[in-house]
Write a structure and sequence with these properties.
The chain is 55% helix and 3% strand. The two termini are 43 Å apart. Strands 1-2 form a two-stranded antiparallel ribbon. The protein has a two-stranded antiparallel ribbon with strand order 3-4. The protein folds into two domains: 198 residues, Rhomboid-like (Rhomboid-like fold, Up-down Bundle); 64 residues, no CATH class. It is elongated, with a radius of gyration of 31 Å. It is built from eleven helices and four strands. The longest helix is centred in the last third of the chain and has 27 residues. A hairpin with a 6-residue loop joins strand 1 and strand 2. Helix 6 crosses helix 9 and helix 7 packs parallel to helix 9. By secondary structure, the chain is mostly helical.
Amino acid sequence: MTLSFPPFTRTVKWIVGVNVVLFFLHGVFAMLTPTARLAQWMESLLMLTPVTLLHGWVWQAVTYSFVNFALLGLVFGMLIVWLLGAQLESTFGQRWLIRYYAICSLGGAVASTGLAYSGLVPGAEKMAIGGVASIYYGFLIAFGVLFSESEFFLFPLPISMKAKYLVGVTLVVAILLAVTGPGGLLSLGQLGGLVSGFIYIKFFFQRRAPARAFAGRGLSDRAYSPRRKGTTEGLFARMKNAYYRWKRKRAARKFEVYMRDHDRKVQFDEHGNYIPPADEAPKKGPGEDRGGWVN
C-alpha cells in the first residue's frame, strides 16, 4: 500500500469541515474589535474547561475536539483524520466511525479532567483545553491495531514500513509536539482518547452483540425465520409466498384468456407454471434423463 491521499468519506468531510469553519470563524472574530467578544464566547462555550464541565457543561466533552485555534495543530490533526479516518470509515462504516469518534472524545475529556484535578499542574482545572489530539490519537491506535501488518511504501522515500511501526513513530512525534506546545503537560490528558479507543477495540469491538431482534435487520431475520420445529418457513414467509403464488395464478388466467382470444390454447398447473403441449416438449436423446436448467 502507498501512503497517499484517500478520497474524502462522508463522516470525514463533516469532521474536517466543522474544524475548519470553527477555526476561521474564531480567527475572523478575534481580528475585529466589535466581534472580539464572540471569539471569547466561542472559547468559553466550546473548549473543555474542567471546572465548568463538572458544573454541568457536559457538551464540552465533545465540542472541544472540534476546536483548533492553532494553525499547525489544525493542519496536522486534519491530515491524520483524513488519512486514517477515511480508511476506517471505508472498512467499518459511518456508524462505527461516529461511535469511535465519540468514545475517543469522551476518553480524552475524562483523562484531561482527571489530570487537571491531580495537582500536577496548578490551576489546570480552570484552563481551557481544545484540539483534535484525542481523536487522532484514537485513530492512530485503531489503525495500528486493526491494520498492524499492512505494509506502506512511503513515497518518495524508497522504504516500506508496517502500519504498527508507522503508527508508533507518528504517535511519538505527535506527543512530543503536544508536550512542547502551549498546553505542556496538560496536553497529555488527551492521550485518554488513545486509551479509551484501545480498550474499545480490544475488549468490545471484536465481541459486539448481534443485532437485537425486531430492530433493523433483526426484524426481517426474525419475522421470516421458522417459528416451529420441523417447519421451513416463518409466518411472514408463508404469507409472502402465498401472495406471490396468487399473483402468478392470476397472471396465468389472464394469459389463458389472451391466448384463447387469439385461437391458441395454453395450460398452467395449480401453481401457475406453464405446461408446454406435447408437440412442443423437447425430445430427449439417448441417456438424457433430465431436462435442462430452468430459471
